[in-house]
Queue: 2 jobs
Job 1
Amino acid sequence: MITALGEGKYLLLTTFRKDGTPVPTPVWVVAGPGDVLHAWSAKDTGKVKRIRRNGDVEIGACDVRGNPKGESVKARARLLDDDASDEVRSRIVKKYGLFGWITVFGSKLRRGRTGTVGIEITAST
C-alpha cells in the first residue's frame, strides 16, 4: 500500500504535537527504493520539528489542499542527512517537472542547500 502512495501527486502527512493533536499537511512525494517514500520540507517547519521529536506519523493520499482521498495508514518518518536530502530534491524535480525545478531552485536561493531536508517514510512495523 505504501508504495502506491508514492505514485500520487500529493501525500497527506500527519504529524502529532506533544499533546497528541494531529497536524495534517499535504506534501509532494516520491517513491524510494523498496517500500519507502520520500518527501521534502524546509527545516524550520512545524512538521520537521514534530518528526524530529517523534517519528510516528500517518500517511494517505490527498489533493493539493490536503483533502483526504482515502484511508490513512500508520508509518514512521525520519529526517535525512544533507546528501540524502540532495537526492530527494533531485527526484522531486524529476517527478514534478518545471514546477518542481522552480520550487526547489527558489528554495535553494532562499534557504541555501541545507535549509531543507528530505523525509524518509516507511511502513510501521
Job 2
Amino acid sequence: MKIYFIGAGPGDPELITVKGLRLIEEADVILYADSLVNEQLFERRKRSAQLIKTAGMHLEEIVNVMVKNAKEGKKVIRVHTGDPAIYGAILEQISFLKKEEIEVEIIPGVSSVFAAAARLGTELTIPELTQTVILTRAEGRTPVPELEKLKDLAKHHCTVALFLSGTLTKKIVAEFLEAGWDERTPVAVVYKATWPDEKIVRTTLKNLDEAMKANGIRKHAMILAGWALDEQIYNRNYRSKLYDETFTHGYRKGVEIR
C-alpha cells in the first residue's frame, strides 16, 4: 500500500510536475486542499476518480479516508499547494500512515516563494549583495521556536521570504527595524502567484503595512524583503564567478587579463 503526496505548485495548473500530473490521471481517490489548489488540475482525472475536498476536515478525518481507501486497494493521492515540504503539514499525516504500515511517496512541487520570484522577474541571491535566503513566517497564533524569532533571523540582512504572514505586517516591520534594517529596504508582495487574479505590490519596509491595506491583501500572500528586490538591481554591475572569463573551473580555463 502506498499513498502519494503531490505538490501541486503555486496555482498555474501547468506548473505541476509531469510525474504529479500522471499520478492525478491514474488516481482512484484524490484528496486536496480545495481552498488553495487549482481545480483545473483535475480535468484530466479518470471519470471514476473520487474527488474529496479537505478544507473543512480535521486531521483524523483526512487520514481515515486515506487509510480506508488505500486498504481497499485504491490508488490514493493527497494534493497539497506549492511544495509539501514547506508548511505542508504532511509530517502529522505521514505519522498516522506509518502506524498503519502504509508507504508514502512525496512528489515535490513549485513553491510559492519561487513562483513569486519568477513573477517579479528577480533572483533572490545576488553576487556580492546576498547569498542567503531565509524561508520563515512571522509569529502569530502559531508560535515559532525561541531561536527563530524574526528579529533575530533578520539580523543576517539577507533576502527573507515570509509565508503565512499577511495579517502580521505591523509586527514584521517592527521586528525588521529592531534588527537594524533600513526602512527604505525594498519589499515585494505577490498575492496568489500565477493565479488569474494575481496581484503584485512593490513597496518599502516602511510602507509595507499601508500598501497591504491599500491593496486589500491579508492572505495568500508571499512577502519578499531585502535588497535583492530592488527594481534598480539590473542597472548595477553584480557579477558571479561562474561566467567570469578570468575564473577557472572544471569546464573552462580562465583567461589571463593583462
